Amino acid sequence: MARERTWDLVVVGGGTAGLVGARTAAALGARVLLAERDRPGGDCLWTGCVPSKALLAAAARAAEARTAGELGVTVDGVSVDLAAVMRHVHGAIAAIEPEDSPESLEAAGVTVYRGTARLTGPRTLDLDGRPTAFRAALLATGAAPVLPPVPGLREAGPLTSETVWDLDVLPRRLVVLGGGGIGCELGQAFARLGAEVTLVEALPRVLPGEDPDASALVAAALRTDGVRVLTGTRVTAVDGTPGGPGEVTVEGPGGVDRVGYDRLLVAVGRRPDTAALEPAAAGVELDDGGHVRVDDALRTTNPRIWAAGDLTVVSRWTHTAGVHGATAAANAVLGLRRTIDRRAVPRVTFTDPEVAAVGVPTWAGDGEPAPRTVTRRADRVDRAVAEGRTDGFARLALARRSRIEGATVVGPRAGEALAELTLAVRTGLRTADLAATTHPYPTHADGPWNAALDDVRSRLAARPVRLATGALVRLRRLAR
Fold first, then answer.
1. For residue 378, how many C-alpha atoms fall within 13 Å in the half-sphere facing its CB?
2. Whole-prediction pTM value?
3. How far apart are CA 245 and CA 239, in angstroms?
4. 3-state class of 91 per DSSP?
5. Which domains does the chain have, with CATH numbers?
6. Among 255, 337, 347, 432, which is 20 to 30 Å from 241 by CA?
């Protein structure tokens, strides 16, 4: 509990950024107070990464059983008990939760306060009526799901990524609003578990922030799993009973239509959670999207306050939240100015196939020319062929001298294959460096490796290089 003292660092929010930041500062010898109004662990543990991946694992097992006949294995009578699936989901949460518990934090030297923190001045905040002073503060209150202003939507009581984990009966018909990462992951999972899923995306394609070829493969996979994918389609109205069945009115390329549902899931994005903070009282500015403004060292417009995680526009994933939390905490308590890496930031959408990307886009953006790329299709990767999973590719975006500036990998375990490409982007490796590194065979990581080999071979086959190497071969032949 907070005592009358000035804390070296007060951390507001116990999600990934706050947890890592608090532990980092305590390890550096700082007196640290972490204030969390709900429960430590944040979105990742309770409603995000952990439960979604547990659900996806169950859905994948069901899909594999149904499609095993493609490999000569017949599985009869596949059935899904959603209550049992959710027990697995909550079991995974329970197994991981002790790492983020108040007891674990206290053991690491962090004082934990369960309650609401409100900024009251440049160096002060209020903890449920108790004035508290700090030398530095780290804001890490995260984000919450957005409900768009569609007539009738809020009244329909839709599910979100935070509440979907309370389901224990599989809805016969599920409508998912949003074709980004969360919408595609959950839509595919529930389709594989047996629901009739309709996914509605206002933009022309699902995963609009990824390589168009990746988006097309995911859309095809969703349809194969039985999802009705409506892109370029807006939801104009919702008519439903709270938390129950209803219908959505949609307008798209085919005109106006009404789609019935038993449950409605909204996954159109998240907004920074600053409502209880009152950042203006401390001179902390927000941008037009409601995110806390930070510089490259994660310092806010108040020089004594830093911010990390979903509260800022520079972090959208758990792994960046953790890294940024540690960076901000070290800067705050040691007076450093370590900056964040905005370039080599990996991201993975855990659909099947997975979509993993890092660095510069591997396609032409708005007003931007397409980079030079080299692509290896999965039908030329031996492990993919052996597993019958050739719906993917590895694509490298290359700069001068074939330096790897970005990558997109689509396929099974693409996230694992992306790890070395993230290192390549961060350290400025070239395709020759990747090609010269021995890789285990046969693995899905052969895709990026062979893409690098293809680039090296194509440059060796270029006329000037071929003339030079041919001359060298002839000279060595004469010397024998």
1. 27
2. 0.94
3. 9
4. helix
5. 6-40+101-145+271-334 (3.50.50.60), 154-268 (3.50.50.60), 347-463 (3.30.390.30)
6. 255
Give per-residue burial for 227-245: e unless 16+ CB within 10 Å, then b: bebbbebebeebebeeeee
SS3 assignment, position 149: coil
How many Cα atoms within 13 Å fall on the side-chain side of residue 420? Answer: 18
Name the residue with tokens 């530095």.
Answer: 136
CB distance 264 to 246 below 8 Å = yes
Which uninterrupted H or E stretch holds 134?
A: strand 130-134
What spatial distance separates the first Cα and last Cα of the chain, rounded to whole Å?
Answer: 83
Q: How far apart are CA 147 and CA 169, in angstroms?
A: 24
Written as six digits, the tokens of 445 are 């990581």
Q: What is the pLDDT of residues 220-231, one digit of tens each?
A: 999 999 999 999
Confidence of residue 298 (pLDDT cuts 50, 70, 90): very high
Give the model's pLDDT for residue 2. 45
Q: Decide if pLDDT at 19 tops 70.
A: yes
The structure tokens listed for 190 are 């529930």
Report the distance separating Cα 174 and Cα 191, nearest Å.
Answer: 9
What distances in angstroms separate CA 311 from CA 15, 94, 128, 132, 291, one per listed residue? 11, 26, 21, 22, 6
The pair phi, psi for residue 60, each rounded to 5°, is: -65, -40
From residue 57, give the alpha-carbon distance in Å to each of 85, 156, 185, 221: 10, 30, 11, 16
